[in-house]
Amino acid sequence: MSQSTASKTKLDNAFRETLDQALKTLVEQDRFLLKTSANERAISFRLAMHLQALLPEWNVDCEYNCWETPCHYMKHVVTGTTSSATEARTIFPDIVIHRRGTSENLAAIEIAKSSNRFSIHQDIKKLKAYKKELGYQHALFLSIGVDEDIDNSQVEVVT
Q1: How far, CA to CA in Å, does 43 sit from each of 2, 66, 80, 111, 142?
Q2: Cβ atoms within 10 A of the Cβ of 101, count?
Q3: pTM for this structure?
């Protein structure tokens, strides 16, 4: 079973339980991806699928870029990447939970594998901007346990 810890501030209980269940399902159903340290995009996609199953009233999208109002602050957070980069760092959150075409934004999520050797500073900066500029209720940085760390995912709530 996946263990996760929250820090900095509390998530509402219902959303926290949903996130914990999705992480548990990720470990149970996608152990191969985690054990082999698959690309972060593959892991993000699978987590998004598990979240969508638990949140049918919301849209769960990966690398979403279709907001009606752009996030002006984001121009300061852009990091170039190519589609061949296995640890791509882009302007778009790895996962968003929202209602498309509205301003109802539940969560913006950035994911990094526990083996990630890059600083999370830019990811945190990006999440803060999405929370401030687009009104996401929750901004989360998830360190997903891979390899030998498979049962140790960490959740950081960004305020």
Answers
A1: 14, 22, 21, 9, 11
A2: 10
A3: 0.81
